[in-house]
Amino acid sequence: MDTLTHHSVLARFGYALSDPVRARVLLALRDAPSYPGELAALAGVSKQRLSNHLACLRGCGLVVAVPEGRRVRYELADPKLGDALTALLGVVAVGNPECCCTAEENHIDGKACC
Question: Exposed e or buried b for every residue in 41-67, given b needs 16+ CB within 10 A?
Fold first, then answer.
């Protein structure tokens, strides 16, 4: 892969993680495959709202839908993604939890917010 392709892959991954609902879904699927109703309850959102997030995650290539009769089970597209999430949590957890800014705050006037 060239650098431009790497950039695109990381941007999609970052976009998927940028929403708390999608991050919760990915972390839940890291532990085990699940169904939309269960994921909606876990994330505290309606099934319709969760459906939109699952579509985003499928579009990013991070989750897959596995038909099971009349139901659909969701799981990570690649088991290595679960390992990557765990590793990312380990790295991020050592950072300063008070140093987190919104997109609007980030790099205002050329200065990082932290």
Answer: eebebeeeebeebbebbeebebbbeee
